[in-house]
Amino acid sequence: MQTNTDRWNPVSKGLHWLIAILILCAWGSIELHEFYEKGDPMRKWWEYLHFTVGFGILLLALLRLYWRSTHPRPKLFGGRWQQKLSLLVQGLFYVLMLAMPITGMAMRQFAGKETPLFWLFKLPPLVEKNIDIAKQLEFFHKELLWNALLALLVLHISGALWHHFVNRDDTLRHMFPQR
Question: Which residue, 45, 54, 13, is CA-closest to 145?
Answer without folding.
Answer: 54
